[in-house]
Fold:
Amino acid sequence: MREHPLLPLTPEPASDDASLEDFRISQPLEILTLLGRMAEQSEIVALVAADGESCLSAIAGVDRGRRLLWLFGTRGDARLEHLLASPWKVAVGYLDHVKIQFRVHNLQWLPGADGGRLACLLPLELYRFQRRSYFRVRPAVHPAPVVRARRGQADPPVELEVIDISMTGVGLLLPSGSLPFPVGTPLPRATLVLGPAIRLRVDLKVMHVTPRRAPEQGHHMGCTLDGLDEDGLRALQHFISQAQLRQSGSS
Structure:
């Protein structure tokens, strides 16, 4: 499975379907083509429940005849079992760095070899997003940027290293053994330190906490990022632009 560590696997929030109308795809052939390409390229998808709990998977195949989407999964995985029991779930992935999102219906194990295969119904519609704000960069500066935040007003601040950042979100390193932040936790008035003289006040909200490849590497905590004033937005945009230039120069 091919993973994009710099791209956020969190669902696009929407208060109503109309807010996503410009991104909706409902033409069956186009849907089949996009999902088929994701399967061919073994693109990672995140399956996300209503409470934010998620697990990583990938599209194993597109069954046009039975109108099924086959997915990779492991029986007994606690996060997957939680998703199976959730009444609402969504899949989020990327194709050519474009965000693909769709509702997951009738996710279940179907009879087959090795204890069955994981499948859901082919979506009748999906959403394709392509905005500059989705492109994240991994800071290549020393010392690394950090976020200082409090779990509660009476708690001492904790300092978490920034793994990746965009104009609308930030990935933080939660060290192994650290007390986890529950999904949905707001972190208001946190401090984003991008450099010795660049400290920005931001409002964060925890969207997912995902284990990294090795247990000793801790967890990747993905947060939405909001609350910047005009000067803060300019400073963050400049930081991201400089990081993109450094990445382009090293590739």
